[in-house]
Specification:
Layout: H1 2-30, H2 48-54, H3 57-90, H4 96-104, H5 111-125, H6 131-152, H7 156-167, H8 172-183, H9 185-200, H10 204-209, H11 216-224, H12 230-259
Pfam family, one: BPD_transp_1
Transmembrane segments: 7-32, 67-89, 101-125, 131-154, 175-200, 234-255
Keywords: Cell membrane, Membrane, Transmembrane, Transmembrane helix, Transport
Length: 260
C-alpha cells in the first residue's frame, strides 16, 4: 500500500510540475524555430527571432517602458507601503482596522474594475493616457501587497530596538532610516521584487491607461492579433527570463541578509 501511495504521489507531482513548466518549455523551444511558424517539427535552433525582436524599435521601446514603469512604480509602492505599515504598527490610530482593510481592498478587486475606475478618474482629472497613468495604476495594485508583506513582519521586538535608539538621543528620522529600514530590509525587498514581477507582465491596466507609448505585454497582444509566429515566442521568452532574474535577485538578497 505504501508503494502505491508513493507511486501515486510521484505521478501527481510530475503532473503538477508538467502542467506548470511544459508550456514554458514549449514557448522557449519554439522561440528558437528557424521557420516562420511555431509548430512541429522543430527546425532550430536559431536566434533569428530574437534578432528580429531586438531590431524591432516598437518592441525594444516597449521593453524599456516596461522596465521603467515596473521599477519606478514598485519603488513608489514599497515606499508608501512601508510608511503605511510603520504608521499602523507604531501608532494608535482611530479606526485603524477599517483603514487597514481599505488599504488592502484592491487585492480583492478585479484589475479590470480598477483600470476602468482609474480611466474614468483620469479622464475627469484631465490626465491623458500615458506611461505615467499606467505607473499610477501599478502603484494602486501593488501598494496593498507591499503593505501586507511589510506590516506582517513588524513585531514588538523591533519596538525595543527603536526605543533604545531614541533613548540614546537619535531623532525620529534617524530611527526610521538607520534602525527600522535595515531591520525590515528582507520584507521591503520581498515587496519590491514581487511588485516588479507583477508590474512587469501586467496587461489589463497598461492596456486601458496607455495609448502611444505602451508596455511590453500590450505590444505582445498587438503581435498576437496578427497570429502566432516565433517572434511572439521570443518576446515571451524574454519576459520569462526577466521574471527569473528578478526571482534570483530576490533569493540572493535574502541569502546575503541571512549570512550577515
Amino acid at each position: 500500500m505504501r508503494q502505491v501511495v508513493r507511486v501515486v504521489s510521484w505521478l501527481y507531482a510530475l503532473a503538477v510540475y508538467g502542467f506548470i513548466f511544459v508550456p514554458v518549455v514549449v514557448l522557449v523551444l519554439f522561440s528558437l524555430q528557424a521557420t516562420s511558424f511555431p509548430i512541429p517539427p522543430f527546425t532550430g535552433p536559431s536566434l533569428r527571432w530574437y534578432e528580429a525582436v531586438l531590431s524591432d524599435v516598437r518592441l525594444t521601446s516597449a521593453l524599456v517602458n516596461s522596465l521603467l514603469v515596473a521599477s519606478i512604480s514598485s519603488a513608489t509602492a514599497v515606499t508608501l507601503g512601508f510608511l503605511s505599515a510603520w504608521g499602523f504598527a507604531r501608532f494608535v490610530l482611530p479606526g485603524s482596522g477599517l483603514l487597514r482593510g481599505l488599504i488592502t481592498l484592491p487585492l480583492t478587486v478585479s484589475y479590470l474594475i480598477i483600470g476602468m475606475g482609474l480611466l474614468v478618474l483620469f479622464n475627469w482629472a484631465g490626465l491623458p493616457k500615458s506611461l505615467l497613468a499606467a505607473g499610477i495604476g501599478h502603484v494602486v495594485i501593488n501598494l496593498p501587497l507591499c503593505f501586507a508583506i511589510i506590516y506582517s513582519q513588524m513585531g514588538d521586538h523591533q519596538i525595543n530596538i527603536e526605543r533604545a535608539a531614541r533613548d540614546l538621543g537619535a531623532p525620529e528620522w534617524k530611527v526610521l532610516l538607520l534602525i527600522t529600514v535595515p531591520v525590515m530590509a528582507p520584507a521591503i525587498f520581498a515587496g519590491f521584487f514581487l511588485s516588479m514581477t507583477f508590474s512587469w507582465d501586467e496587461f489589463v491596466i497598461s492596456f486601458l491607461l496607455t495609448r502611444f507609448d505602451t508596455t511590453l505585454p500590450v505590444e505582445i497582444w498587438n503581435l498576437l492579433r496578427s497570429g502566432l509566429n516565433p517572434k511572439t515566442n521570443a518576446v515571451g521568452s524574454l519576459v520569462f527570463a526577466v521574471s527569473i532574474v528578478l526571482v534570483v535577485l530576490f533569493e540572493l538578497t535574502l541569502l546575503r541578509r541571512r549570512k550577515t
